[in-house]
Amino acid sequence: MAPQGSRAPLEFGGPLGAAALMLLLPATMVHLLLVARSGPARLLGPPPYLPGLEALWSPRALLLWLTWLGLQAALYLLPARKVAEGQELKDKSTLRYPINGFQALVLTALLVSLGVSAGLPVGELAEMLLPLAFVATLTAFIFSLLLYLKALLAPTSALAPGGNSGNPIYDFFLGRELNPRIRSFDFKYFCELRPGLIGWVLINLALLMKEAELRGSPSLAMWLVNGFQLLYVGDALWQEEAVLTTMDITHDGFGFMLAFGDLAWVPFTYSLQAQFLLYHPQPLGLPMASVICLINAFGFYIFRGANAQKNTFRKNPSDPRVADLETIPTATGRQLLVSGWWGMVRHPNYLGDLIMALAWSLPCGMSHLLPYFYFLYFTVLLVHREGRDERQCLQKYGLAWREYCRRVPYRIVPYIY
Ligand SMILES: NC(=O)C1=CN([C@@H]2O[C@H](COP(=O)(O)OP(=O)(O)OC[C@H]3O[C@@H](n4cnc5c(N)ncnc54)[C@H](OP(=O)(O)O)[C@@H]3O)[C@@H](O)[C@H]2O)C=CC1
Ligand SMILES: CC(C)CCC[C@@H](C)[C@H]1CC=C2C3=C(CC[C@@]21C)[C@@]1(C)CC[C@H](O)C(C)(C)[C@@H]1CC3
User: Fold this and answer.
1) How confident is the model at residue 57 (pLDDT cuts 50, 70, 90)?
2) Based on the domain organization, do 131 and 231 belong to the same domain?
3) Is residue 164 part of a domain?
4) For atom 34 of ligand 1, which residue has the closest CA?
5) Which of 310, 388, 391 to probe ligand 1 with, by most ligand atoms within 8 A of CB?
6) What Pfam families does the annotation carry (predicted)?
7) End-to-end distance of the chain based on CA atoms, in angstroms?
8) Is the pLDDT of residue 2 over 70?
C-alpha cells in the first residue's frame, strides 16, 4: 500500500521546490514568448524587454479565453459516443468519463472554418499570445485555489496519494483531490485533453495563417510543425480513453502543477516552434523535409505501438493482440509485460515521444537553440517522470518490479539509459 498524505515522501523539492516552480514556470513561459519574437531569439540570454502590465493585461484576451473555456466545456457536455470507466479507486468504486474529445476537436475545427470563411481574423491570435498566456496563468492560479478549498470538504478517500502533506504551498502545487468533480464534470480529465491541447493546435493554425498573410504562403517548415503536432493532438483525442491509465489521472491530485500545465504551459510553450518560425523563417528543402517526416513517423510508430500494447493488455490480458506476450506475475494479481515494446526498455512510449519532439524542432534549422527548448524540457520532464513512476511501481509491485528491472535493464533508450 502506497504511503498516504503526510507520510508520502515529498517530491519536486518539497514546499521550497514547489514555490520556486510556481514562480519559475510562468516566468519561463513569458520569457519564451518574448524571445520567440525577438530578432536574436536567444534562449539563454535575457528577455528582450520586461513587459509592463499594459502588455500583459487585456480585457479582450480575458473575454476570448473565457469564451474558449466555455466552448470547450459545452463540447465536453455533448452526448458522447462512449462512456468509459476509469481505474478502480481506493473505495473500490470507479468513475465514468465521456469519450468525446475527438468529436470536440472536429466540432471546434468546423466552427473555426466557419469563422474563417465569415472573415474571422484567426491570424490575429498570433499577436495576442502574451496577454492570452497571462490570463491563462491567472485562471490557473484562481482555479487551483478553488480546487484547494474544495478539497477541504472532500472525504479522505477522495484525496490523492501525494499532495496532502499538510504544507499548504506544497499541497496547492501538487493538488489535494484526485478527481475533483461537480456532478459528472471531471475538471482534471477535462483540462488534461481539451482547452490546452486543442488550444495548442489552434494557436499553431493562427501562426500559419499569419505567416501566409505576411509572406504570401506558409513555409514548408510551418506546414510540417503544424502537421506533426496536429497528428499528436488528434491521436491523443482519438485514443482519449488511454489517458485514464496515465499517472496524471490515476495518481496525481489536481493542483497548480496540472492546472497551469494543462491550461497555460501546453498551449503557449508547446507552440514555440511555430512561434519561432513566424518571426524567423527557415529554408527547408524537400529531401530534408522527407527525412524529418520519417523521423516523426518512426517516433510515432514506437509511441503509439507501446501505448496501445499496454492499454490493450491492461484492459484485457487475453486479447489476441497481446495474449502471446511474455509476462511477470505480481502479488497484486496484475501482470507486467516483459516482451514486445515493454521488453525493449521500461518506458518505450517515452522514447517514441522524445523522437517526435526532436522531429518537431528540426524544421526550425540548427541556427538557434530556442526551437529545441521543447526537446530539452521534455527530456528533463520524462526522466523525472520515469523516476517517479519507478518509485510508484516499486511500491505497488515490490519484488516483481525488481525482477522486471533485472530483465529489462534500460529505462528509456536501449543500451544508453
Ligand atoms: N507531451 C507531454 O508533455 C507529455 C506526454 N506524456 C506521454 O504520456 C504517456 C503516458 O505517460 P505516463 O502516464 O507517464 O506513463 P505510462 O503510460 O508509461 O504509464 C506507466 C504505468 O504503466 C504501467 N506499466 C509500467 N511498466 C509496465 C509493463 N511492463 N507492463 C504493463 N504495465 C506497465 C504501470 O502502471 P500499472 O501497472 O498500474 O498499470 C506504470 O505505472 C506517455 O506516452 C508519455 O510519453 C507524458 C507526460 C508529458
Ligand atoms: C508545468 C510543468 C512543467 C509540468 C506540467 C506537465 C504537463 C504539461 C504534462 C503532464 C502530463 C501531460 C500529458 C499530456 C500533455 C502534457 C501533460 C499535461 C498528454 C495529454 C499529451 C498527449 C499524449 O498523447 C498523452 C499521452 C494523452 C499525454 C498525457 C500526459
Assistant:
1) very high
2) yes
3) yes
4) 393
5) 310
6) ERG4_ERG24
7) 29
8) no
Distance, CA 75 to ligand 2 centroid (Å)?
21
Which three cell numbers, joined as nine digits, stand for 260? 497551469
Range of the domain at 210: 14-42+51-281
Answer yes or no: is pLDDT of 4 > 60. no
Mean pLDDT value of segment 64-91:
92
The contacts found for 16-21 with CB under 8 angstroms, 24 or more apart, are: 18/169, 18/170, 18/172, 18/173, 18/174, 19/169, 19/173, 21/173, 21/257
- Number of structural domains (the chain) is 2
**4 occurs within a structural domain:** no
Closest ligand to C-alpha of residue 193 is: 2
- Which among 244, 247, 263, 375 is the best mutation to test ligand 1's pocket, defined by most ligand atoms within 8 Å of the CB? 247
Question: Which is the closest atom of ligand 2 to the Cα of 258?
Answer: 5
Contact 170, 10 (CB under 8 A): yes
Note whether residue 3 is domain-resident: no
- 328 and 242 share one domain: no
Q: With a 6 A CB cut-off, is 236 part of the ligand 2 pocket?
A: yes
What global pTM score does this model have?
A: 0.94
